[in-house]
């Protein structure tokens, strides 16, 4: 058996793993690359395999960095089955068309300019029609239900506790007369999170593929995350400000609504403050996702189930208002009262949240509250890193609002959670592959894994292929470059050099050695180089 790491290797996005067995090929996940320009350009690369040979896809969960290129698979010729949990199938029915809408909208905007310049028009990564057609190939599966592909291959989904319907994948493979078990953690959730059940403990496996988003970090102050959330909200409202929460439409938005509804049901002073302001969810996707949660309350944990048993639906506080139309969203930008605005995208790279940041970052009374991971090079990450001026829709905006971050709301298990999950396995893995993380953190995590469990640990890079048998694992070859084949390397080198200089200058600012003005000047240069790179790729 061979496995090739197409994405999610020394990267937190683009998860995709190609399996080659005797006469059979399939994928685990097929996600979109997200982050900076270089990562996003990888989405346009042709798949490094023959699509007619791919029989099926096993999808761990609905997040776009795991599912987002499945419509491209269809567009390029794939017609096999996508196996996933029934809740993930329902979530993909709204998330993939939403992703397609974003692809089409961005290309339409670029093509207006190209048409004026007499250039050839571009095609979107995939269309709404592609997304809707591929959904017909999804098959929903229950947790614990064994799917027998043939006499040599079967799999089972277990609850990963990361988002509604998220799954750990247990693969059972027979080859050359021997059977062995591989486990993909998917994105592994935290224990004791709102709404969801804890991740399932696995009996054991021969080979483990484990995510490492927080593999070298611990979530801070997990026990007090709910209190911190409510304190930040109530304090900002008391001071006459707005709380802007960039949030992933699926998962995190519902967690935040749950925490607010839970607080409002009490008689606390904070509850009285929060009851008197409106809560806006400005995301059509989040609105649809919240409705899907209602359909799958059997996935809820004991506390959430108890609320429902008592006649309270814990995802809809009484002062909640869903914003649906574009006109309503524009009206919200002119709303001059204290309020809570929850909007996507969670990393501030697209969607209505960018408009809310543009209209609210300048006001020192407001608070921007991050409740999820911010990938490098995203607007969210730049705000968290303390950038004092940002460009939004080409306009320079001064950052005066308070920037807060509650890391404990991450949907990913931290280092302690990942180790605890492995430690509870009755039979430890023979070998471990560390995937879905930033390279530096992965190497640190891998070293500690090796020391603690006395087993071989591999940190594969994108494009690497490994041959796996019950006796050994051998790297066969590197099939393709980590970078898009069409990228302008000279401009990219300049970008990387300036990004390095930016990091150095940020450290200088912390030590009062460098002025913010110098940092802003260099950042403008970086944006110009990124623009030059996009021009160099226009004929792609």
Helices and strands in order:
Layout: E1 2-7, E2 16-21, E3 24-30, H1 37-41, E4 54-58, H2 64-67, H3 70-75, E5 81-85, H4 86-116, H5 128-134, E6 138-141, E7 147-150, E8 153-159, E9 167-175, E10 178-184, E11 207-211, H6 225-238, E12 243-246, H7 252-264, H8 269-275, E13 278-282, H9 284-295, H10 302-309, E14 320-323, H11 326-333, E15 339-343, H12 353-360, E16 367-370, H13 379-384, E17 389-392, E18 395-398, E19 402-405, H14 415-423, E20 431-435, H15 439-453, E21 456-458, E22 464-468, E23 473-478, H16 489-510, H17 516-536
Parallel strand pairs: 3-4, 4-5, 5-6, 10-11, 11-20, 12-15, 12-16, 13-14, 13-15, 16-19, 20-21
Antiparallel strand pairs: 1-2, 1-22, 2-3, 7-8, 8-9, 9-10, 17-18, 22-23
Helix pairs in contact: 4-5, 4-9, 6-8, 16-17
Write out key terms for the chains shown.
7-stranded mixed sheet; alpha/beta; 36% helix; 17 helices; single chain; 540 residues
The share of residues in extended strands comes to: 15-25%
- What is the count of DSSP helices, taking H or I runs of 4+ residues? 17
Low-pLDDT ranges: none
Structural class: alpha/beta
Rounded mean pLDDT is: 88
State Rg: 23 Å
Global morphology? globular
Strand order of the largest sheet: 6-5-4-3-2-1-22-23
Distance between the termini: 35 Å
| Helical percentage | 25-40%
Tally of strands: 23
Strand count, sense and barrel status of the largest sheet are: 8 strands, mixed
